[in-house]
Amino acid sequence: MKIISRICELRNCLSEERQKNKTIGLVPTMGALHDGHISLVKRCVEENDICVVSLFVNPTQFNNKQDLATYPRTPENDFALLETAECDYVFTPTEKEMYPEPDVRVFNLGLVAEVMEGVYRPGHFNGVAQIVSKLFYLVEPDKAYFGEKDLQQIAVIRAMVKELNIPVEIVSCPILREAGGLAMSSRNRRLTPEQHQKASLIARTLKESTTFVPGKNVQEILDYVANTLNNEPVFRVEYFDIVDRYTLQSVKNWKETTDPTGCIAVFCGEVRLIDNITYKNKLS
């Protein structure tokens, strides 16, 4: 495994790999890796000749400076995990390397970027598009891997790829969960032990809500999830919506979509957690 911090060096290495007709996969991350990330890396290794993982906490996608300052950074642990997962190249640029000049590009990401996270984190997805497009232009991957915990992000990246005509296959991978059900996230490290224990209620509540479908209507499910979590003092639900999995637009009844998906953002103390669950299997 080779650790690279300079763009020119990574380009040279990958150019040599391409000359050997090797396929290249990319896993973009912000570091603080966990088993969810590693599942993406392992799939990338299986499906490509060369696996590239980026470790970069991208400042342009943070609309909250405190969130950027407290985002966990564990590079040595990340390197050890990636070595074990048989990653080939780790790209760890500085902010100056990725942004020698301010990135003023504004993307047309469509309706998928204007709901949920787009409402509560203004500018976030434009920052995601900035860094991911930079990585795609640099690495020129055949495939890029993203976790479905960030379901809206995947839709946004697909919109960005379509807008820019970037020849890359976006591969979405299932959510990995901790033993208690909590979706794996780098932000989980910021939870206190008590908060961490409580946080598993998010996934349990989402799963429980699927058992009421299709007997209860969409609004009843929305109320059940929000009320159940808000009744716990440690939680504050920022949003919970049931949307079409691909357009991400809200649905009012189960007949409006063939793949209804519940998407949630909830504060556990000061830590903001997201998750999602499908109701599709309950309607078939």
Radius of gyration: 19 Å
- The ordered string of helix (H) and strand (E) elements is EHEHEHHEHHHEHEHHEEEH
Q: Give the mean pLDDT.
A: 97
Largest pleated sheet? 6 strands, parallel
Strand content: 15-25%
Instruction: Could you tell me the CATH topology label of the largest domain.
Output: Rossmann fold
* CATH homology superfamily name of the largest domain: HUPs
CATH architecture of the largest domain, please? 3-Layer(aba) Sandwich
Outline type? globular
CATH class of the largest domain: Alpha Beta
Give a description of the structure.
The protein has two domains: 2-173, 3-Layer(aba) Sandwich (Rossmann fold), CATH 3.40.50.620; 186-276, Pantoate--beta-alanine Ligase, Chain: A,domain 2 (2-Layer Sandwich). It has helices at 7-19, 35-47, 65-70, 75-84, 95-98, 117-120, 124-139, 151-164, 193-210, 218-230, 280-283, and strands at residues 2-4, 24-29, 50-55, 89-91, 143-147, 169-173, 235-244, 260-268, 271-278. The strands form two sheets. Strands 1-4-3-2-5-6 form a six-stranded parallel sheet, sandwiched between helices. A three-stranded antiparallel sheet has the order 7-8-9, covered by helices on one side. The protein is globular. The chain is 40% helix and 19% strand. The chain is an alpha/beta fold and 284 residues long. The model has no long low-confidence stretch (mean pLDDT 97).
